[in-house]
Amino acid sequence: MAYVEQPQRILLPVSIGYMAFTVLLALLFNLMPWHDLAGVPDMVALVLTFWCVHQPRKMGIGIAWFVGLVMDAGDGSLLGQHAFAYAFLAFGAITLHRRILWFSLWQQAAHVLVLLLASQTLMLAVRMAAGAAFPGLMYFAGSLIGAALWPTATFLLLLPQRRPESFDENRPL
After folding, report:
1. Contact, 142 vs 41, CB < 8 A?
2. Which of 79-88, 108-117, 142-151, 158-167 has the lowest mean pLDDT?
3. Cα torsion 26, 28, 30, 34: sign
4. HEC states along the chain?
5. Model-level pTM?
6. How do residues 54-64 score in pLDDT, each as one tens digit?
């Protein structure tokens, strides 16, 4: 299979306020009453992964740890389980960000699936070490759905950074 280079669009710089807003929206989504249902994706993990892949200098392990502590406190779960998993997730996303961006969106989603599953497995390991029972394989359905949402999340989260089409067409070569 031959590699066909796709034209890249030049994006505007991302606003730190916008990044914080998207993480806050993801936190609010996760804290809704449906977070215990099987198949509901961890939107905080997805948004953190996105920003760690696309903006590794602005979103890092420390922020992921803090957001995880907020998630632990808001969720009423074992303190540190989300923080540990999100910090690991951020580390993996930052480490692999150049590799991930090389691929198409669906191939990126496969990488994101591995990161989300690893994060969810760490949270499960912490819960089980604290005495919780194994919730069943449906527990991992959220990671599958989160990875399937990667192309949509990429489109939506990059939307404010996109330049108008006319600007890209009229720039000199």
Report:
1. yes
2. 158-167
3. negative
4. CCCCCCCCCCECCCCHHHHHHHHHHHHHHHCCHHHHCCCCCCHHHHHHHHHHHHCCCCCCHHHHHHHHHHHHHHHCCCCCHHHHHHHHHHHHHHHHHHHHHHCCHHHHHHHHHHHHHHHHHHHHHHHHHCCCCCCCHHHHHHHHHHHHCHHHHHHHHHHHHECCHHHHHHCCC
5. 0.85
6. 999 999 999 99
Among candidate residues 19, 33, 17, 113, the one with its CA nearest the CA of residue 64:
19
* Type of residue found at 110: A
What is the pLDDT, as a whole number, of residue 116?
Answer: 97
Tokens 């089980």 — which residue? 128
Tokens encoding 19: 């990044």
Q: What is the chain's mean pLDDT, rounded?
A: 88
